[in-house]
Structure formats: structure tokens, C-alpha cells
Amino acid sequence: MKKPHKVLVIGGGAAGLVAAVAAGRNGAEVIVLERMDRVGKKILATGNGRCNLTNINIDLKRYHSSYPKFVKGVLNQFNLHQTLDFFEQMGIAYKIEDAGKVFPMSEQASSVLDVLRYELQLLKVQEECNAEVIKIQRKNNQFVLSLKDGRKITGDKVILATGGKSSPNLGSNGSGYELVIPFGHKLISPFPALVQLVLDAWFLKRLKGVKFDGKVSAVADNNVLQTEFGEVLFTEYGISGPPILQLSRKAGEILHQKKSRPYIFIDVFPDLSEDQIENMILSRFSYHPEKSIEFSFVGMMNKRLIPVILKEAGIEDLNKSCAQINAKERKNIVNILKNWQIPIKGTQSWMQSQVTAGGIDVRDIDPNTMESKLIPGLYFAGEIMDVDGDCGGFNLQWAWSSGYIAGEVAAKA
Ligand SMILES: Cc1cc2nc3c(=O)[nH]c(=O)nc-3n(C[C@H](O)[C@H](O)[C@H](O)COP(=O)(O)OP(=O)(O)OC[C@H]3O[C@@H](n4cnc5c(N)ncnc54)[C@H](O)[C@@H]3O)c2cc1C
């Protein structure tokens, strides 16, 4: 009988653990090498501890890569339904929430990690923690991995599932890129995505903690790149909240290219037209023409927002009465409320970002097998590749799909 392949999985995150299950199920002897003191730290942090494990609206449009065609085949080969079956058979009952987001019924990310580890135990997969791989070598048709602590581990196949550079406190520090660049793999310059935006504005300290449901757009060179709705939160460095994370991919790309300056446009009252807001202001002014312009907005918007909006509209004297406000000033206020334009200075750092845009160039990877076209026997899985998805379960789906294919093929090939 043919001796089983010995498959070495570098990285015990979402992609690596699923790859290890798939390789184990296909008869391989598998070792997972993880640099942290335990596997799956990032899985535990996903979905605010609830793990948004996929999305029922998986669509190519929700993924970004320099070569988007690569993504299609991978997501079809181990698709949404196979993913849901895979987890259900291991014990994860699931529920679907807003915008198609799928969560375990337990509402615990830890349950996802628990069932994966249980499956690995059944398959006798060996988990080696505190095992950071610092070098990959090819010797006599075998791979020799050098660990930071001096150990050397040999195997027939290697699956590289070391993630990107986002949230390095959870293990992924970009070290995986360095392992394959010496073999000729190219790196599409990575930048943080699904991350808060840093704004260039005088009022940030004053607005820290102010929240509202708004419409936000990322704009560059007078082109609207993307528009999102939802809860926006001002912070001392800039702006945060779910719609901002979604915009951050496009804004981050513009910043990374350094060709033009992106802006954020905020609509504070997306449900009202400019005319409706102006009429509302006029009637408020007519009830109490004696009120200061600042006080006249109390009850219509967050009190801390009022002086900032008025100053941005060019009104310096906030004690001026409503009766003293002329038509031009009133229109300026309406304009700021509907089209508040703020320059974006940057994004928050890798530490705050949820996903890495860019990564290993997928043109050197076979999308049917996830095998390197440059190093036979070496496979890629997950975020290490130049593929990232929107917020909403799309990134974990990428990790599960690419991980499963890599594990299955590595064991069988
Ligand atoms: C806070 C947070 C919340 C998120 N929530 C969601 C969500 O709800 N839904 C969703 O779809 N996506 C979410 N994401 C994104 C998603 O978690 C990632 O895209 C996904 O986990 C990537 O999986 P991966 O296995 O490729 O990489 P990772 O999960 O980053 O795993 C890589 C592993 O490799 C290890 N490693 C790295 N280098 C080495 C080395 N040299 N030697 C050995 N081991 C190494 C790391 O320690 C790590 O354990 C979230 C991300 C964050 C940070």
C-alpha cells in the first residue's frame, strides 16, 4: 500500500485548520505548525466573538484581488453549501441574520474552533503550538521546515496558511510572505482593509463618541467610489462604524497608490431631501426666532454635532439669533448636513485592521488545486493570497474554500 503523504500545514488559523481536516480526511498524516501558544486565536475574535462564518449572498463582486477571476473557481469548488454542510456535520447549527450573514446558533465563535479541533483529534492531526516556521527548503523531493526554536521538520507537502498582516496580536504578522519570496513568488504590496479611517479635521476631539445613522461615501477625483449606510461613529482620530469599515478598502487603495486624495462625504440625514431639511429649519426658526442659532438645533441632532456643523457652514457667532441668519447661511447649513466633505488622512494601523488587501500574487497559484506553479508540492490557503472580501462573512468563506481545496489536493496528489 502507498505510504500516506505527510502534509505540513503552516498556520493554525481558519484556512490552516480546515486544510488540515481536509488532508486528514483524505488519508494524509498531518501536522499543524502554529507560531502562537494556541491555534485559532483569530477565529475566536471574529464577528465580535460570534463568528460570522459565511454569507448566503456569496458573490464575486464582494471580493477584491488584482486578478479577480482566480476567486471564482475556488469559491465554486468548495462552495457555500458545501461549507454549511461541512460545519453542520461537525455540529454547527447556523442562523442567518441581516444582509445574509451566517452565524452559529450558539452565537459563540469558540464553538466553531471547538468542533474543528475535535475533528482534528479524531483524524489524529498533530497540533504543534509555539512553532514558528522561519524557512522552507526543498531537499530530495521533500520539504524541510526550519522553526525559530532550531527544530527541523520534514514532510512531503506544505500548505502555507499564515494569513496576512492584520491583527498581528492574533498571530498573523506577515511572516508567511518571507517564506516564499525566496522561491520567486511575488508580493502584491499589502495594505490594511476593514479598518477605521483617520480624518484630517479640527473637530475630532469634540466629536469623539458621537454616533448617528448616516450615509457615507468615499470620493476621489470627484468620483464616488462607494456609498454605504449605517451607524457612523466619530472617534478622536477619525471615523468608525460598519459602513466605514466597508468603505475603507476603496479609500485605503487610493491612499496606498498615493495618486490622489480621498474624501469622505457624510449625509447626516439620509432620509430627508435638502428641501425637506431647509423647510424643517425654516419652521423651527419661525417658532422661535429669538433662539440662538446653536440652541435652535437642539432636538434635531446630537448636541455635540451642532457647533461643529455650524462652524463648518461658516457661522462663527453661534449666539447669533435665528432671525439674523440669512438665506445663504441657511443653505450652507443644509449643504453641510447633506454633503459634509472631510479629507481622509489615512487608515488605522495593521493592529486595528480585520483583513489584508494584497498578498501573494495569485497568478503563480493554480486556482483548481491551490498549488504553487513555482514550487510543486507547496499549496496556499486563506488570506496570505492577494484576495480579500467585504465585511459580512466573505473573508472566512475564502479561508474555508481555499483551505479545503488545498488540504484535499495535497493529501491526494
Ligand atoms: C477582529 C476580527 C474579526 C473578524 N471577523 C470576521 C467575521 O466575522 N467574518 C469573516 O468572514 N471574517 C472576519 N475576519 C477576517 C477573518 O478572520 C480572516 O480573513 C481569516 O481568519 C483568515 O484566515 P487565515 O487562516 O488565512 O489567517 P489567520 O486566521 O490570520 O491565521 C493565520 C495563522 O498562521 C499563524 N502563523 C503566521 N505566521 C506563521 C509562521 N511563520 N509559522 C507558524 N504559524 C504562523 C498565525 O499565528 C495564525 O494563527 C475578522 C478578522 C478580525 C481580525
Automatic annotation (TrEMBL):
Domain RsdA/BaiN/AoA(So)-like Rossmann fold-like: 6-408
Pfam family membership, one: HI0933_like_1st
Signal peptide: none
Cofactor entry: FAD
InterPro entries in the cross-refs: BaiN-like (IPR004792), BaiN-like_dom_sf (IPR023166), FAD/NAD-bd_sf (IPR036188), RsdA/BaiN/AoA(So)-like_dom (IPR055178), RsdA/BaiN/AoA(So)_Rossmann (IPR057661)
Domain RsdA/BaiN/AoA(So)-like insert: 192-355
Keywords recorded for this protein, A-Z: FAD, Flavoprotein
Protein name, entry field: Aminoacetone oxidase family FAD-binding enzyme
